[in-house]
C-alpha cells in the first residue's frame, strides 16, 4: 500500500512539472508570435502612406486631421491603405475563404490605424494630418495665428488661467471675454492668457503643436508659443453683467495723474463707460471723480485701506473733488501672478502645516503670489495641479519649492522639517470645510443628505481629536514655528502675510502685497448656495470639541504663543 502511494506521489510530481513546462512553453510561443506581428505592423506602417491618408472612421470623427472629409461624402467600394487593396465583401460571399481574407486585412488595418494614432500621440503632432485639424473645434472667436511667448516678458499680460486636464479653446475664450479682454492665447495645451494687445512676433504655424488637454484634435499653442484668437465681442446685455465690483468711496490722492497711468474725461460719464475704458487698458481699478475716469492699481499712494463715508462722494458733499468712487474691473491684477520653482535648492526645509479644512490651499495661493515661487505638497492632489499648483507634481523633498503643504503629525514626520508655519483654524469651521471637501470637492458644499447621515457624527468623533493632536504634536516636536490663525490672516491679510513671507526669509514690495490682496480669493471660494445659520453640531459634539479647544489654548499659552482667538471660545 505504501509502495503504491509512493508511485502515485511520484507521478503527480512529474505531472506538475510537465504542466509547468507546457505553460511556460505556451507563454513563450505567444510572446514570440506577438513580437512578430508587431514587427509586421510596424514594417507595413512604415512602407505605407503617411498618417494623414484616408482611413475608415465614423462620421463623428470627421475633421480630426487623419481623414479627408471628401472621402466621407462619396464612399468608394475600394480603400487603398499602405500597399493593401481591400475589396468590400459581398453579402453572398460572407462565408467564403475570400471573406475571411478580407476580415484579416480589416483587422490589420485596425492595428495599423492604432499604430498611427500611437505615433501621433508620442510625437509633437507635426504631421500634415494634424495641420488639417488645427482649428476645426467649434468656437466663436477668430483665429489670428501662432506667436512666440516669453515667460519673462509676456505679451498677453492680462488674466492667466490653468487647467491641465480640461482646457479647451472655447473655455479660454469665454474666460477672457468675461473679463473684457480682446485676445485669448493658449500655450502648452493647458494654459490660457488674456490681453488687449496682439503679440508682436509671429511664429511658424507648425510651432503651435500642443493638443488641448480637454479637446482632442485642437491646438492650444506649444512650448513658448501661443495660439491666439480674437475674442468675439460680447453683446451689450452680457457686457453689463460683467463682474464690476464697487470697492467704496476713498479720499483722492493729491495728484491723480501721477498716481494713475491712464485717464479719460467724458461728459455724462457712467460706471460702465469708465470700467470699459480701464478694462481695455488692462487695469483692475476704475476710479471716478465727477466727469473724470482714472485707471490703475492699488499702490502705496492709493492702498484702498482707508475707506470714507459714501455720502462724501456724492455731488453735494464732493464739490471740491476730494473724494472718488472706486470700482474693480473684470481685469485681473497680474503684477503678482508669475510664479516659478526655486533656481537653487532651499537650505531650510519649511512645512506649511495644518489640519485638513484649515485653509492650507488658500494660504498656498497667498504665499505663491507674494513670493513668486511655487509651494510643494506632501501629497499629490490632481485637482489642485490642474488649477495651476505646479508644485503638486514636484517631489516634496526636492527643495525646489518655498514650503511644503502637510497635514501630517507625529514625531517622525514633524522632525523631517527644519521649520514650519502652523496654520490653525476654528475646529467648528475646519470640520465643516473638510466634510464639504470630502463630499463635494475643494469648491463645493455637501448635501443635506450627507449632513443628516450617520457619517457626519462618526466624522466629528474621529476628526475632532485629530484637530487637537495635530496642534499638540507640532508644538511638542516642531523645531521652529510660526503660529498663524486663519481668522487673523483673513482679517489682517497684509500684516500677517508679510510676517509669513519674512519667516520664509523672503522680501517683497508693498505693491506686490497689495496685488495679492487684490487677488486674495483666487479661484478657491466655494460655489453654490450656502445655508445661512446652518448648525450641524449637536450638544454632545459641542461638548467634545470645546474640551479640545481648551486643551489647545492652554498648550499654546504654555509655549508663550498667543492663545486661540476669541471666536474659538466654547459656544
Automatic annotation (TrEMBL):
GO molecular function: sulfotransferase activity
Record flagged with keyword Ligase: no
SUPFAM superfamilies (UniProt xref): P-loop containing nucleoside triphosphate hydrolases (SSF52540)
InterPro entries assigned to the protein according to its UniProt record, in alphabetical order: P-loop_NTPase, Sialate-O-sulfotransferase, Sulfotransferase_dom, WSC_carb-bd
The WSC domain, residue ranges: 140-232, 243-336
PROSITE patterns in UniProt: WSC (PS51212)
Keyword hit for Repeat: yes
Keywords: Repeat
One Pfam family named in its UniProt record: WSC
Domain of life: Eukaryota
Record family assignment: Belongs to the WSCD family.
Protein name: WSCD1 protein
Amino acid at each position: 500500500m505504501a509502495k503504491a502511494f509512493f508511485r502515485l506521489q511520484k507521478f503527480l510530481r512529474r505531472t506538475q512539472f510537465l504542466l509547468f513546462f507546457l505553460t511556460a512553453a505556451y507563454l513563450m510561443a505567444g510572446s514570440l508570435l506577438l513580437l512578430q506581428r508587431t514587427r509586421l505592423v510596424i514594417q507595413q506602417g512604415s512602407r505605407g502612406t503617411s498618417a494623414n491618408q484616408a482611413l475608415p472612421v465614423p462620421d463623428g470623427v470627421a475633421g480630426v486631421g487623419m481623414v479627408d472629409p471628401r472621402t466621407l461624402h462619396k464612399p468608394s467600394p475600394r480603400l487603398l491603405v499602405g500597399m493593401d487593396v481591400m475589396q468590400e465583401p459581398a453579402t453572398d460571399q460572407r462565408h467564403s475563404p475570400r471573406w475571411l481574407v478580407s476580415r484579416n486585412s480589416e483587422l490589420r488595418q485596425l492595428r495599423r490605424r492604432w499604430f498611427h494614432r500611437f505615433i501621433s500621440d508620442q510625437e509633437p503632432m507635426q504631421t500634415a494630418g494634424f495641420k488639417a485639424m488645427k482649428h476645426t473645434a467649434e468656437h466663436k472667436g477668430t483665429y489670428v495665428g501662432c506667436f512666440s511667448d516669453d515667460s519673462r516678458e509676456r505679451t498677453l499680460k492680462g488674466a492667466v488661467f490653468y487647467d491641465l486636464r480640461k482646457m479647451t479653446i472655447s473655455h479660454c475664450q469665454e474666460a477672457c471675454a468675461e473679463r473684457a479682454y480682446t485676445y485669448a492665447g493658449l500655450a502648452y495645451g493647458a494654459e490660457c492668457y488674456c490681453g488687449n494687445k496682439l503679440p508682436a512676433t509671429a511664429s511658424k504655424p507648425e510651432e503651435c503643436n500642443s493638443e488641448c488637454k480637454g479637446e482632442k484634435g485642437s491646438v492650444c499653442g506649444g512650448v513658448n508659443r501661443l495660439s491666439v484668437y480674437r475674442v468675439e465681442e460680447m453683446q451689450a446685455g452680457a457686457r453689463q453683467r460683467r463682474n464690476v465690483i464697487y470697492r467704496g468711496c476713498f479720499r483722492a490722492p493729491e495728484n491723480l495723474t501721477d498716481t494713475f497711468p491712464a485717464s479719460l474725461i467724458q461728459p455724462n460719464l457712467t460706471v460702465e463707460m469708465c470700467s470699459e475704458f480701464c478694462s481695455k487698458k488692462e487695469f483692475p481699478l476704475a476710479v471716478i471723480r465727477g466727469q473724470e475716469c482714472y485707471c490703475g492699481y492699488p499702490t502705496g499712494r492709493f492702498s484702498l485701506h482707508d475707506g470714507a463715508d459714501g455720502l462724501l462722494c456724492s455731488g453735494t458733499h464732493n464739490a471740491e473733488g476730494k473724494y472718488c468712487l472706486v470700482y474693480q474691473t473684470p481685469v485681473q491684477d497680474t503684477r503678482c501672478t508669475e510664479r516659478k520653482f526655486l533656481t537653487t535648492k532651499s537650505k531650510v526645509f519649511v512645512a506649511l502645516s495644518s489640519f485638513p479644512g484649515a485653509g492650507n490651499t488658500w494660504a498656498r495661493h497667498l504665499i505663491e503670489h507674494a513670493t513668486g515661487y511655487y509651494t510643494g505638497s506632501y501629497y499629490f492632489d490632481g485637482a489642485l495641479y490642474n488649477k495651476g499648483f505646479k508644485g503638486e507634481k514636484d517631489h516634496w523633498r526636492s527643495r525646489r519649492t518655498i514650503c511644503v503643504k502637510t497635514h501630517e503629525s507625529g514625531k517622525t514626520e514633524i522632525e523631517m522639517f527644519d521649520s514650519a508655519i502652523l496654520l490653525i483654524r476654528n475646529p467648528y469651521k475646519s470640520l465643516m470645510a473638510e466634510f464639504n471637501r470630502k463630499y463635494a470637492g475643494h469648491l463645493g458644499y455637501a448635501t443635506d443628505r450627507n449632513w443628516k447621515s450617520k457619517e457626519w457624527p462618526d466624522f466629528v468623533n474621529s476628526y475632532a481629536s485629530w484637530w487637537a493632536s495635530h496642534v499638540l504634536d507640532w508644538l511638542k516636536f516642531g523645531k521652529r514655528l510660526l503660529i498663524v490663525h486663519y481668522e487673523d490672516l483673513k482679517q489682517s491679510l497684509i500684516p500677517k502675510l508679510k510676517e509669513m513671507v519674512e519667516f520664509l526669509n523672503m522680501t517683497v514690495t508693498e505693491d506686490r502685497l497689495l496685488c495679492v490682496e487684490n487677488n486674495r480669493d483666487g479661484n478657491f471660494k466655494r460655489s453654490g448656495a450656502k445655508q445661512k445659520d446652518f448648525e450641524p453640531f449637536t450638544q454632545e459634539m459641542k461638548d467634545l470639541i470645546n474640551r479640545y479647544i481648551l486643551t489647545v489654548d492652554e498648550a499654546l499659552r504654555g509655549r508663550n504663543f498667543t492663545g486661540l482667538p476669541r471666536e474659538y471660545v466654547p459656544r
